[in-house]
Amino acid sequence: MNWLVARGSALVARAIFLVRGHTKNDSDRLFNLMKQQCRKRNTYTPQQLVENMKHPDVTVSRIKHNEQSPMFRTWTAWQNQFMTDKIDDTRKCHIFTCDKSRDPNALCCSTHYGTKEAKIMIAKDKFHGTDWATATVPNPLPTIKAQDIKYKELCDKWRPLAPEEHHKEWECFAVDPGPEFRKKVNEASKKRKLARAKAARGSAVDADLPDTQPAKKKAKKAKK
Predict the structure, then answer these.
(1) What is the mean pLDDT of residues 41-69?
(2) Burial class of residue 74, CB neighbours in 10 A (0-12, 13-18, 19+)
(3) Calpha distance 140→73 (Å, rounded)
(4) Domain locations in the chain as residue ranges
(5) pLDDT tens digits for range 89-132
(6) How far is 155 from 171, CA to CA, in rounded Å?
(7) Residue 115 and residue 109: Cα distance in Å, rounded?
C-alpha cells in the first residue's frame, strides 16, 4: 500500500480485515460454491482442478507466468531494501491505511473505525524525502514449478493413484525424475531436518529453558 501511494498510483490505500468470528462474506461464499462440484469428482491434474471448480457464479482461470510476461515478482527481496521489518503492536488491528496527504512513508493502524490510530513508519529513515518507490522495480520471479521435494512426492506417492491416461497431462506424472534426483532431494531433506533440530536446540539454550533430555539418554552418554 505504501508503494502504491509513494509512487502516485493512489492517494489513499486501505486494507480492512474482518474481525475474528465474523460471519461469512462474499469471498467465503464464492470459494464454497467452487467446491460444490469439486468435492464430488476425482481430480488428478491442475487442468482438471480448474474444470471441476466451474460454477455459474464463479469464473476460474489459470494464471500464466513466465519471464517474458511476469505475473509474479520478487516483492519481498525488493521491499527489504526500502522498508523496515520492525512492525509491532498490529495483531489486534483490522484497518490499515496509507494516506499521501498525511505521510506516504507511514502506515496508520486501528482496531476499527473511530478508534485512535497507531502510526508506524514503514519506509526506512534514510529513504524519507526520496523517491524510493520508483527507484527500482522488483525482478520477475523465474518460471514457477513444483519444488523438488513436492515433485518427488507427487511422482512417487500420488502418481500410482492416478489413472494412466492422465499421466501425460502433467509433468509431475509424465516425467520420472530419476534416482539421482531422488537422492539429491533426500539428502537436502535430511540437511534441512538437522538444521531445524539444531536451531530448536539453540533456541532452547538462548531462552534458558530447562533441559528436557530423558535421563536414560543422559546416562547412556555418560557411560560412553
Answers:
(1) 85
(2) middle
(3) 4
(4) 2-134, 148-208
(5) 677 889 999 999 999 899 999 988 888 888 889 899 999 888 88
(6) 9
(7) 10
DSSP string, 110-142: ESSTTSPPEEEE-B-GGGTTS-GGGT--PPBPP
- Distance (Å, whole) CA 156 – CA 149: 11
- pTM flag (> 0.85): no
Q: What is the pLDDT of residues 132-185, one digit of tens each?
A: 888 888 888 887 778 899 999 999 999 999 999 999 998 899 999 999 999 999
Please report the DSSP string for 4-41 in residue order.
HHHTTS-SEEEEE-PPTTPPP-HHHHHHHHHHHHHTTS
84 in Cβ contact with 101 (< 8 Å): no
